[in-house]
Amino acid sequence: MKSNLILLMAAAMATTACSKDGRMVTESAFPIELKAVTLERQGSVKLYTKSGEVTDEAVIANFIASERGFNAPFAPEPSNTITFTTDSTAQLGISAVLYRVSREDNDAVVFRSPFILGPYATGAVQWTALDTYRLGKHNGRLETFHSGGQLLYKGEAVIYCQGTYQSLLFPIMIYKLYRHSGTEGQASESMISGKLFNEFDEDFLTTLGDRDTVAYQQSYVRFSK
């Protein structure tokens, strides 16, 4: 009987591991797949210029008229998943990017992935990519470095979620940014729009020029096992 008890204890120890936040997690629990189940919170569309917030609904509607993401109905697809491959790594949907995952403050799950903008992105393409990165509230501080005579940027894309490995609120931000610079005859225009897995960084507003405009809508989707 004693030898059988020892074998059972050894088997139990072999199938458990201590996670980074001190909890005991069975190794067989991973992978854990969460699916998008409901749109839990959705804010109104916010629009800003250098002068401040624009609240005229007609102006807002006109600026976002060509963007289908704003005020879109919630319709999750089979690929809208989060898969925790281990207690410290995860994948979003069908993307091959492997995020580092950590638990923070006992009420948050944080995803991190390195960000590098290389010399392949030049001119307007480079600046729009940097703008997209800077829109995210939780993204890491950007640093510059040189490689092969080229200036590159590096940082860390960070997604901050409330919840646990079983159920969490995932931030999704729809945005549109219009920039206009230069003088008459030498004017430069650029427009970027899309979806970010982040929250809007209000410090971004300080980068707006006299004729720049940015709009965003913040939502939170519930992912559950």
TrEMBL record:
Keywords: Signal. PROSITE patterns: PROKAR_LIPOPROTEIN (PS51257). Residues 1-19 form the signal peptide. This is DUF4843 domain-containing protein.
